[in-house]
Every structure is written in structure tokens, then in C-alpha cells.
Amino acid sequence: MVSGGRSREERWSLAGATALVTGGSKGIGHAIVEELAGFGARVHTCSRNAAELQECRRRWEEMGLQVTVSVCDVSVRADREELMATVGATFGGKLDVLVNNAGQTLFKPAAESTGEDYARIMATNLESCFHLSQLAHPLLLGASVAGGGSVVHVSSIAGFIGLPALAVYSMTKGALNQLTRSLATEWAGDGIRVNCVAPGGVKTEISTDMTIDPELVKNEMARLPMGRIAEPEEVASMVAFLCMPTASYMTGQVICIDGGRTIS
Ligand SMILES: NC(=O)c1ccc[n+]([C@@H]2O[C@H](COP(=O)([O-])OP(=O)(O)OC[C@H]3O[C@@H](n4cnc5c(N)ncnc54)[C@H](OP(=O)(O)O)[C@@H]3O)[C@@H](O)[C@H]2O)c1
After folding, report:
1. Domain Ketoreductase: where (predicted)?
2. Which of 13, 34, 175, 182 is the most exposed place for a label (fewest CB within 10 A)?
């Protein structure tokens, strides 16, 4: 579905759209929920913490945003199936936008990473995105926004460049970048666009993780042209753009939001 011939207001809007954003209780996911809902979408989000989710939902209601929540551990197959059943029931069997955002880091030298570390990070950051995309596919086929259904993955610049003590995490993000291109080609004929945002450092709980080597942070800041890390909203705005009718000819792209880190 093309967005041409529509007014600017219609192209830069998510009015009437429905969206699932994983990991919306904090950080980047929280900002994405507010951005999509602020542009008029009805949003469902999840995390593992029921109390935190309810507190978020209450605040969003006060802000006039239409957001529903449910508990889901995205690393667990049965939880993912239950989440998509809830989303299908909430939005009448249709979905316009899936944002695969939930993820965890592992700052550990490769030689010390255990089998459990590997399995947890792979299940949380990668398998979840593949399976949730599969589960969302029939709902996305019924998308009604101009520009068609849309999937956005949240990967990382760690999927492009080598960083010490981040091998397992970076493997999941590199694979997510490739999943973006593979699904984009496979689903273009279904009217579903698949894109990805790859942030550099963003001010969230992940970037304040006390297991990060301070030396790595110092070196990274020295190589960063813009000299600061991002606010979560600076990632959310690109996610919203990718889901809008105005991005109707964009698919298969991985967009770095990194203050220039990967071009310097
Ligand atoms: N912050 C950065 O510098 C940065 C840079 C590049 C990429 N990213 C990526 O951006 C995404 C979001 O990161 P963030 O920095 O916003 O992290 P964050 O502040 O720690 O928030 C992560 C969100 O995901 C949820 N989550 C984590 N594990 C989950 C699971 N197994 N099932 C369901 N929900 C889960 C968390 O809630 P619960 O823990 O309560 O479940 C929370 O809502 C991740 O994919 C991350 O890799 C972040």
C-alpha cells in the first residue's frame, strides 16, 4: 500500500494504528510506547514485572495515551504465544506495527561466557524477535495503515563493529540486522515492511550497568563525534517514522542512531 496522494498530516501520523512494543516499561521501549501512542496509535506493551507495568499503564492513562499491558518473558516460547493471543484479542485479530525492543546485555569476555549466558541472551535478544515476528505475521497481513504492516527490530551498533566483552550480545544484534533484510525480502509481497534501528549508547539502565568496564566507556566516548550518548526519545522518533505511511517505500534497512560512532 503506498502513501502517495495522502495529505502530510495523514502521512506523518499513526492515527488508528495498532502496535505491539516489547519491553515498554523502561528505557528505549518506554519512549517508543509514548512516541507511537502520541502519534495516535493504540499500543500494547509487555515486560516481566507486573507492578512496574501497571504503574506505567496508570501514568499513560493520565497522559491520555491508549496503552494496554501484559506480563511476558520474551525468552519463553509459551509466553510469546500467550502475548500474541492477547494482542490478537485486544486489536480484533489485526496488527499494524510490531516493535521487537526487549533485550538484555552481557558484558563478559567470550572466554568466560557460560552455556547458560549464551542460551539466555540468544533466547531473549534473537529467538524472541524471530518467533514474535512469525506469530505476528498473520495479524500484520490484516494491517490497515497506509504503507502496510511494519516490523521494527531494535539491534545495536554492536552488531556492526567489534567491541570487547560483548561477543554474545553482538552476535544477537548482528543476526537481527540480517533477519531484517531476510524478512523484508520475504514479506514485501505481503505488504509488510521490516526495518531496524541500531542505537549506539543510550541513557537507560543498560548503559549504567556496573559490570561495564569503565575503560571501555572512556575509549568509546573518545571516539564518539557527538561526544554524548542518546536520549531514549532520539531512538523512539526514528522507530515512529519507520512505522508511518510516510516511510512506505522503506524496507530492509538498518539505521544507526549513534552520534556518528560508526562513521568515524
Ligand atoms: N541502552 C543502550 O545503550 C542500548 C544501545 C543499543 C541497543 N540497545 C537495545 O535497546 C533495547 C532496549 O534496551 P534499553 O537500554 O531500553 O534497556 P532497559 O532500560 O534495560 O529496558 C529493557 C526493557 O525490556 C524489558 N525486558 C528485558 N528482558 C525481558 C524479557 N526477557 N522479557 C520481557 N521483557 C524484557 C525490561 O523489563 P523487565 O526487565 O522488567 O522485564 C524493560 O522494559 C535492547 O534490545 C538493547 O539491546 C540499547
Report:
1. 17-200
2. 182
Distance 2 CA to ligand 1 centre (A): 33
Number of domains present in the structure of the chain: 1
CA distance 95 to 141: 8
- CATH number, domain with residue 169: 3.40.50.720
Question: Does the active-site annotation cover 118?
Answer: no
pLDDT tens sequence across 24-75: 999 999 999 999 999 999 999 999 999 999 999 999 999 999 999 999 999 9
Q: Is residue 1 part of a domain?
A: no
In which element (H, E) is residue 50 found?
A: helix 50-62
Residue 262 lies in a domain: no
Q: Is the CB of 170 under 6 A from ligand 1?
A: no
SS3 content of the chain, % helix, strand, coil (to 5): 50, 15, 35
Helix 50-62, helix 27-38: angle, nearest 10: 30
CA 251 → CA 21, 62, 82, 216, distances in Å? 19, 35, 28, 33
| Catalytic option among 39, 91, 160, 169 | 169
Ligand 1 atom nearest to 49, measured from its CA: 40
Nearest C-alpha neighbor of 176 from the set 157, 200, 202, 203: 157
What is the structure's pLDDT at 40? Answer: 98
Separation of alpha carbons 241 and 218, rounded Å: 32
Ligand 1 midpoint to CA 203 (Å): 12
**Whole domain around residue 65: which residue ranges?**
13-257
Residue 205 near ligand 1, beta carbon < 6 Å: yes
Compute CA 72 distance to the chain's CA centroid, rounded to the nearest angstrom. Answer: 15
